DNA sequence: CTGGTTCATGTAAGCGCTTACATGTCACTT
DNA sequence: AAGTGACATGTAAGCGCTTACATGAACCAG
């Protein structure tokens, strides 16, 4: 009956470090100390404080701490969207590494935004550093950010002035993949995808061209379609209508390849008999589909993790790298290219 | 030559509202006013301020604003992971709605965390409200959060004391789906998945049982496996080995269904001839696979959007709903259930 | 018993914003 | 010419933390 002075319901909502200190009979400095765990506090006082925290349901106000310590302990990540496994994996890798570094992550998806610039500006307001996926849509704002001196790393994008770039290797594996297809004797291979949609696709096309050149072959102009299932199906239809002629299709990514391949098959074409189809990314579906899709696997999670890691290093004062970092990539041969099925 | 007094390189990194005010020759209050855009400011001063902001590369410190206005303008989202389209879509829906409401979103993935409780506590520190996906792993911490009086909504989880719940409908569509399969004359249908892994799966199993009961049939015990491709393949192998006997499989989700179906097919079984297989979620692969997978489509994006929306309403002072909200769900009949192919 | 250490704790000064309130200016009215 | 509003801007008091520094208690050596 002795300690019932505390108002039983005045708790939680507005608990601050002051109310906790009061409740525990100590100063706010002591409360802060036990919560940060850095300095030594006598065990008995620590228990008192913890009890008060518990009792009041105290949750410290992150903003106040951030203001006092002068950083946010948070990284920003700007991605176009999350459909398909690519960005999701990137995000997982990023999140996992950020978690290890005790950084919160705040996410912005650009496709859902009408005012992208405002969103990015807002983001810059609450994080210490930002990783941006290199969609062409955002370059201007990235530059603005740079001027505002938040460390920025660009993932799979154009090397912007001053911002670090990290990406997966494209040119070499694209050359290898195209070479593999040509090795099956295909002579009318088409590249499907728009090289202008970013450096990734541009380099894949460059690899396709290089593979042709090495063999003294002419590389066709790319078929410029977006990386969506719908555009894939539409292109396949045009192919069926005779608008294009090809015995192999090197698609800019798996989603495109899959929708094209399925549309062709449903129309009675034999893949790879009549026409080979290869993709890029090695999404889950590519394993399940028959024939299995030959493609290229990127270390997407690692890409994300690396971005988070660099961000942290930059925040900790390491100098920016001028050289773009490049992660190796791996050819995955299944049977849509003309190789015999192996499953 | 007259206005070159400004130090050319002292910019950005440490620009504060004070330096901007100095630079523009106004008070910090005025700077704040033009940046918030709420109060009227004379056009000429507004221009001066904007120019100073631009020149100094000023980015306001979110933490300071949050502290002053006493909320974060951010929502938290706690998800197990992001592999597969389900969570990614949920996140997209959530993000899109949050963006409309001008809320930042900070993301925590629980599978990558060793100390989940700490992560959630940290999260609570920097957001106004939290949406938690209802994995059983986190219930205890959710309760702690509730005590600490941050609004919480639980997505597809157990109705925890005080926390709102929102979910997609399971029981009815599961009954419908199971009924459909039984309608093909299958009499040895198995449910594959663990009803104890959460209310979603539990209700799907309940629907399976109800469909049997309605027809005077006995429902078998569920085959308790986790929702992963690996476990699916393992189960398929045991089925092939004769450990189970079945003419239909109702799987707890598509990933399971797909890996099982493919494993069976690769072993020479005819789906749906020998055995029907149905799933849940309608992931992209389910469209591409042959036979097309019969499944149930959930309004996953809407689920996410609804969560974001409720969070905002709760933060704005609306009273919590005691009734769980339930979104309708839709049977997608393709041919893995025994129906003729339609594509 | 005194003075010097050591160690736990308290005191108070910010961190960079927002905003209620006070002040000053102008343009009218009378 | 003085009084009155209306309006733009400045002043200053917080918001809830962290942390350098000051204080005081406890202990030990001399």
From TrEMBL, chains A, B:
It comes from the Bacteria. CDD domains: HTH_LacI, PBP1_LacI_sugar_binding-like. Gene3D superfamilies: 3.40.50.2300, lambda repressor-like DNA-binding domains. PROSITE patterns: HTH_LACI_2. The keyword Hydrolase does not apply. The keyword Transport does not apply. Residues 15-69 form the HTH lacI-type domain. Keywords: DNA-binding, Transcription, Transcription regulation. This is LacI family transcriptional regulator.
């Amino acid at each position: 009956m002795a300690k019932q002075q505390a108002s039983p319901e005045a708790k939680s909502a507005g608990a601050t470090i002051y109310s906790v200190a009061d409740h525990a009979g100590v100063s706010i400095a002591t409360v802060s100390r036990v919560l940060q765990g850095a300095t030594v506090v006598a065990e008995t006082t620590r228990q008192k404080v913890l009890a008060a925290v518990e009792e009041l349901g105290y949750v410290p106000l992150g903003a106040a701490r951030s203001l006092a310590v002068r950083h946010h302990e948070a990284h920003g990540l700007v991605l176009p969207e999350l459909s398909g496994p690519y960005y999701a994996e990137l995000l997982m890798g990023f999140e996992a590494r950020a978690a290890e570094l005790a950084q919160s992550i705040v996410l912005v998806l650009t496709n859902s935004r009408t005012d992208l610039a405002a969103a990015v500006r807002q983001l810059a307001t609450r994080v210490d550093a930002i990783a941006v996926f290199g969609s062409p849509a955002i370059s201007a704002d990235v530059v603005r950010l740079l001027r505002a001196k938040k460390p920025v790393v660009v993932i799979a994008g154009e090397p912007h002035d001053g911002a670090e770039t990290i990406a997966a290797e494209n040119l070499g594996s694209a050359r290898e993949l195209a070479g593999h297809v040509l090795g099956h004797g295909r002579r009318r291979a088409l590249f499907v995808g728009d090289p202008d949609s970013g450096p990734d696709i541009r380099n894949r096309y460059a690899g396709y061209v290089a593979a042709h050149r090495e063999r003294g072959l002419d590389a066709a102009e790319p078929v410029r379609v977006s990386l969506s299932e719908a555009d894939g199906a539409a292109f396949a239809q045009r192919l069926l209508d005779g608008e294009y002629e090809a015995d192999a299709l090197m698609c800019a990514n798996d989603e495109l390849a899959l929708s094209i391949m399925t549309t062709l098959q449903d129309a009675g074409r034999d893949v790879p008999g009549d026409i080979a189809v290869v993709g890029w990314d090695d999404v889950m579906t590519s394993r399940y589909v028959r024939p299995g899709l030959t493609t290229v696997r990127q270390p997407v999670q690692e890409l994300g993790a690396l971005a988070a890691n660099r961000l942290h290093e930059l925040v900790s004062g390491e100098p920016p790298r001028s050289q773009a970092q490049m992660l190796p990539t791996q050819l995955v041969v299944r049977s849509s290219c003309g190789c015999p099925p192996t499953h």
